[in-house]
């Protein structure tokens, strides 16, 4: 068995990693409708909705977090 996680403990969730690696895309998609919470807080509080919006609008251009690339390479072995 293998466990994959970001090496930076401050990047403790998928949403944080996606936001930090794709800040411009996340801000573009979610900024207009976020007035009372930050884009990252919205993403953390609305995980499924945020993931679906990112997939539909930027799915082919997002940077995948390194730990997920490592996990995918491990699965392919």
Tell me about this structure.
The chain contains 5 helices and no strands. It is an all-alpha fold. The two termini are 13 Å apart. It has helices at residues 14-21, 23-30, 39-45, 47-58, 66-76. The protein has one domain (14-76). The protein is 60% helix and 0% strand. The chain is globular, with a radius of gyration of 13 Å.
Give the N-terminus to C-terminus distance in angstroms. Answer: 13 Å
- Listing every helix as H and every strand as E from the N terminus to the C terminus, the arrangement reads HHHHH
The number of helical elements comes to 5
The largest sheet, given as strand count, sense and whether it forms a barrel, is: none
The total number of structural domains is: 1
Helix content: 55-70%
> Rough shape?
globular
List keywords for this structure.
5 helices, 77 residues, mainly alpha, 0% strand
Task: Describe the protein's topology.
Layout: H1 14-21, H2 23-30, H3 39-45, H4 47-58, H5 66-76
Helix pairs in contact: 1-2, 2-4, 3-4
What's this model, at a glance?
The protein has 77 residues and is an all-alpha fold.
